[in-house]
Amino acid sequence: METFFTQSNLLVLLGTTCAVFILVSIIFYYHWRKYSDRTEVMVLAETIYLSVGALLFAGALIVIGIL
Amino acid sequence: MVILDADEQIVAMVRRHWFAMLRVTLGSILVALLPLILWAVFRMINVIPELSLRTEEMMLFFYVIFLIFVWMFYFLEWTDYYLDVWLVTNKRVIDIEQKGLFRREIISLHHDRIQDVTVITSGVIATLLNFGKVHVQTAGERRKIILHDAPDPEEVKRMILSRVPPHRYMSM
């Protein structure tokens, strides 16, 4: 397991997850902006979603760095 | 959101009760913590052998990836919660239902077609927090719309029935 999950393989896995996250965010934005008229709630939702997502990705990057 | 007629006005907008979202939130937190709980339990009963520091760090990496997916799932549920809405206008009841990310249903029932409004409150929490199901049934086509976890369902029923023409109301 340790030989397969090298730093570069983990980075590829993280990059793929990041791509999925960005794709899902774009779909969320599409829905939130198209179907809701409460912009202040949507801006708050976007901020929370992206901030926590960015923190998690930063955490994963730090772990890869330690490895 | 929905295109209304020129002389149509929104009387009320009803979303599911906040408890529906609290349920999802608690479920997501439990799912997020589950690997940690299992890890601690298995460690305690010595099921997991001693792992190297590198393997443990790698497991931490996969746990963070898992959390990212739980986070995406949570927002998917929130989007579903937030975009599911009932609009009561002076002419009709509009049920907008978001099902996942790529399916959206909009059903509108004109007040003069409504034949029956039923309220079902079941369970201790639903009774204490005052939420429940509201079924609205129309006459001919046997169409029905259901709002799950409606806050103050009796008030929603009253609001709809107060707009149903008297001759229909009396026949119920």
Give a written overview of the molecule.
The complex is a heterodimer of chains A (67) and B (172). With 67 residues, chain A is an all-alpha fold. Chain A has one domain. Chain A is 85% helix and 0% strand. In chain A, helix 1 runs antiparallel to helix 2. The longest helix of chain A is centred in the N-terminal third of the chain and has 29 residues, at 7-35. The model of chain A has no long low-confidence stretch (mean pLDDT 85). Chain B is built from 5 helices and 7 strands, in the order βααββββαββαα. The mean pLDDT of chain B is 87. Chain B folds into 2 domains: 10-16 and 85-171, PH-domain like (Roll), CATH 2.30.29; 20-80, no CATH class. Chain B is α+β, with helices and mostly antiparallel strands and 172 residues long. In chain B, a hairpin with a 3-residue loop joins strand 3 and strand 4. Chains A and B meet through helix 1 and helix 2 of A and helix 2 of B.
Concise overview:
The complex is a heterodimer of chains A (67) and B (172). Chain A has 67 residues and is mainly alpha-helical.
Number of helices of chain B: 5
Percent of residues in β-strands of chain A? under 5%
- What is the CATH architecture assignment of the largest domain in chain B? Roll
What is the gyration radius of chain B calculated from CA atoms? 23 Å
Structurally, how many domains make up the residues of chain A?
1
Please report which band the strand proportion of chain B falls in: under 5%, 5-15%, 15-25%, 25-35%, 35-45% or over 45%: 25-35%
Shape of chain A: elongated
- Percent in helix of chain B: 40-55%
Distance between the termini of chain A: 14 Å
Strand-pairing-aware structural class of chain B: alpha+beta
* Helix/sheet category of chain A: mainly alpha
How far from one another are the termini of chain B?
32 Å
Strand count of chain B? 7
Strand/helix succession of chain B: EHHEEEEHEEHH
The proportion of residues forming helix of chain A, as a percent range, comes to over 70%
Averaged pLDDT of chain B? 87
What order do the SSEs of chain A take from the amino end to the carboxyl end, as H and E?
A: HH
The greatest inter-chain interface is formed by: A-B, 30 and 25 residues
